[in-house]
Amino acid sequence: MRGDLVRKLAARCLTIGLAVLAFVVLALTGATGWGLALAVAALAATAAEQRVRPSADLVAETTLIAAAIVVGYARRLDDGLNLALVATGLVLLGLVLLVGPLRTAGSLEIRAANLPVRAWTPLIADQLGTALLGLLAALALAAALDLPAGGALAASLLVGAGAGAVALDLARRRFRPRAGGGPVAAALRRHQPEFLLYFSAPPGSEYQVTMWLPYLERIGRPFLVVLREPEFLAPVAAATDAPVVYCPTLGALDEALVPSLRAAFYVNHGAKNSHCVRFTQLSHVQLHHGDSDKAPSANPVSGIFDRIFVAGQAAIDRYARAGVQIPADKFVVVGRPQVESIEVRPEPARGLANPTVLYTPTWTGHHADADYCSLPVAEGLLHRLLERGATVILRAHPYTGQNPASARQLGRLTELLVADRAHTGRQHVVGAAARELSLTECVNASDALVSDVSGVISDFLYSGKPYAVTDMGGEGERFVERFPLAGSGYVLRRDMSNVDDVLTALLDTDPLAEARWATRRRYLGDFPAESYAEAFLAAARRELTLPEGRVSEGSAQLSPLA
């Protein structure tokens, strides 16, 4: 998004500018103190840029900074040709040239958590850039204190030796790989997982995995989580005791898919899913990470999976309505196990004097046809809710911050509710406090929902409580045709011209109370509340039954489709 690009451009300009300025001051003037201070500032800017742009090529800037520090060191010592300092410069040059390739090579190695194995080389390779910046900062300090150059050479050689050891080990792994894979593959074979959860998504999407982990654990069979992006390794590993493996390449994926596996589960339609679907010995099951009437919920890509677990008949109808033809035997109605802890209110609660309303605006989506976000018009809605004495739980979509305009709009709504809380004492829940609550906790704490088109409505539907849906496309009567779930809710027009009528129906009269129960069965299945999640668990266990002809335990490594 635009805000992210601005941050990256600012970081780039700051790093280059300070590096050049430090070199010019140290090489062409006698102001070594100022020059070394600028070099340290350039190092700080470089470290900041690495966080903003993790894959950035910073060789030129780092070379300039290293050269500036060596020149400044020589000027401070002022003792002619210093061989130790010359050697230090050569070691630094080698490190600057090696760090990038070693980090790249290390990033292509398989990594794991929650396994009794430690792959130290990739971790050290990933930190070499930070180590180099720390070394340069230490050399700048040594120059400022006029310390002997021998210490600088010793420190440089120490870091250089570490880089050399990493280079040798990475070369061995690349050119002389172990038969049957490395230590991660061996540990997975000992673990004997029967299924895997495969995940690839943009940053900030780990909730798609964590919502399913408790139910995968309740299947009662050993499993692993396979990730294709490194930033998910730590948060996902913290959410489960199951092995979590990051596979950066197809070769790493081949290594992780050990022979005991029988099924693979997916939670989205990520492009990299095809890398795993190619293993035809596995049963491939799409779970989705929510159930909604959004266009992506009827993605024709679903057809590549052997099974599509859906919450209710409405999901199957959604594909047909979108013209996506998928064989009926691929669909399995399993309910939405995540709603099992939602408290059900069987009787309508009419005439609520001081209601608690959950407002869940969605994000703008990747494409215009998936933009259902109501944040641009939400301020008037919140004012009306406050006038009715409502307490508001404002829980925005995790991707909201990807759009700077949405982030600003959310900020204004948060300020509005914080100001009202200070004035009236009503305990509105916003910001970090709202993010810390699970969706189930938000639903249980509320009397009604106002939402954009999203999977939140399906989950809220389980409670039996009333909800309103925003028509941000201005579709009028066609809105319910496109999004049938809105037919059992109260539709808010984009211009909010009917906001008072909708809030009266939502919080006072609730004429659609009976209709919601029929909709609930269509969208969430008709399963007993006391054993609601058992439908999913039974269906998942069936997928683990080894059909005749599939690769059995102890056989050769799983093989992808040629």
Describe the overall structure.
The chain is 49% helix and 9% strand. The protein is an alpha/beta fold. It has three domains: 1-112 and 121-175, no CATH class; 183-339, Rossmann fold, CATH 3.40.50; 356-524, Rossmann fold (3-Layer(aba) Sandwich), CATH 3.40.50. The chain has an eight-stranded mixed sheet, sandwiched between helices. The longest helix has 27 residues, at 2-28. The chain starts with a helix and ends in a 19-residue tail after the last helix. The chain crosses the membrane at residues 20-46, 58-75, 81-102, 123-145, 151-171. One of its GO terms (molecular function) is CDP-glycerol glycerophosphotransferase activity. Pfam families: Glyphos_transf. It comes from Micromonospora inaquosa.
Oligomeric state of this protein: single chain
CATH topology category name of the largest domain: Rossmann fold
Share of residues in strands: 5-15%
Residue-averaged pLDDT, rounded? Answer: 89
Count of helix runs: 22
* CATH architectural designation of the largest domain: 3-Layer(aba) Sandwich
Q: Report the strand count.
A: 13
Keywords: Membrane, Transferase, Transmembrane, Transmembrane helix
Organism: Micromonospora inaquosa
GO molecular function: CDP-glycerol glycerophosphotransferase activity
Pfam families: Glyphos_transf
